[in-house]
Write a structure and sequence with these properties.
The structure is a homodimer of 173-residue chains. By secondary structure, chain A is an alpha+beta fold. Chain A folds into 2 domains: 6-35, no CATH class; 37-172, Nucleoside Triphosphate Pyrophosphohydrolase, CATH 3.90.79.10. Chain A is built from 3 helices and 10 strands; from the N terminus they run βββββββαβββαα. Chain A has helices spanning 79-91, 143-151, 158-172, and strands spanning 6-10, 14-22, 28-36, 39-44, 51-58, 63-67, 70-72, 93-105, 114-125, 136-141. In chain A, the strands form 3 sheets. Chain A has a 4-stranded mixed beta sheet with strand order 7-4-9-8. Chain A has a 3-stranded antiparallel beta sheet with strand order 1-2-3, with no helix packed on it. Chain A has a 3-stranded antiparallel beta sheet with strand order 6-5-10. The longest helix of chain A is centred in the last third of the chain and has 15 residues, at 158-172. The radius of gyration of chain A is 18 Å and the shape is globular. Chain A starts with 5 loop residues before the first strand and ends with a helix.
Chain lengths: 173, 173
């Protein structure tokens, strides 16, 4: 980063900066950068092999979106801490195990957010507690049905598509 | 959207707003929303079946990132127009055909960006012309090698992982 950095906004979820960077060949340019603390998302898998998707109201997308449970990493917490919280709040389950599937840079052209992807197993029900700005339906379904929805273009959310593929790849290998 | 919307920043790449939205159950809440015109990304496939990845300097990620060619939709253009431009500028090829693989919401928690994913075939070389803020290496490789890199966690970029899986799924079916 150079000296010409300017904080435009520093919010609860994102910060926006105009940053000056030196390219590998020495040229300099300025960039609009959204900074985010990172996130974690998890595919919950039930005893009988069904997976749990959620339908969540997302203002950015203008309506309800099919997703897997996810949250923002708060105060440098590990993804696992975030995911245990989100599984309890959004789905109403506790997971006996969390296993890493992979990770993704969500929008590397302008944003530093990394989302860590996991699978959760050994689920037991606990009381659910949505946050005030959340509206979420919980929908267990066969894994093949989730993949069929993906193929039909009904799951536009990137992290959800990627988690389903990473889980499928792991189980096929 | 409600009346309580406030434009914090309106830039070349993104805008940032504080928006008030009504949830499906009638509650209201305010959200930090990054608005983006959308993008397109393309997996170029050569005659011999090799695919073309690029290594690109990405300030948001703090270094070089493995990706597929991609760009921002300008002035409401269709994804195909954007991709023909990016293939020429970033890779130095013209594609005889572009075929849709899918699409992804990149970061639906705070951003409305949709990236349209395509595969390009029938490639012929043309002069390459990077933009002033771009630094990009072009790397043709076997598709299996790209998937091995993905499995080893060497391709964190979400749109690139998803395009590789969508292309693989299409060819397996």
């Amino acid at each position: 980063m150079g000296d010409g950095n300017k904080v435009i906004f520093s919010g609860r979820i994102v910060s926006l900066l105009i940053e000056e960077h030196e390219l590998p060949d020495g040229r300099r340019a300025s960039f609009e950068i959204v900074r985010h603390s990172g996130g974690a998302a998890v595919l919950p898998v039930m005893e009988d092999g069904r997976v749990i998707l959620i339908r969540q109201f997302r203002p950015a997308a203008g309506g309800m979106v099919w997703e897997i449970p996810a949250g923002r990493l708060e105060g440098g917490e590990p993804p696992e801490t975030c995911l245990h919280r989100e599984l309890r709040e959004e789905v109403g389950v506790r997971a006996a195990s969390l296993e890493r599937l992979g990770e993704m840079l969500t929008a590397v052209g302008f944003c530093d957010e990394v989302v860590h992807l996991f699978v959760a197993r050994g689920l037991t029900e606990v009381p659910r507690a949505l946050e005030p700005d959340e509206y979420i339906d919980v929908v267990p379904m066969a894994f093949d049905e989730a993949m069929a929805m993906l193929r039909r273009g009904e799951i536009p959310d990137g992290k959800t598509q990627l988690a389903l593929f990473l889980y499928q790849q792991r189980n096929v290998r």
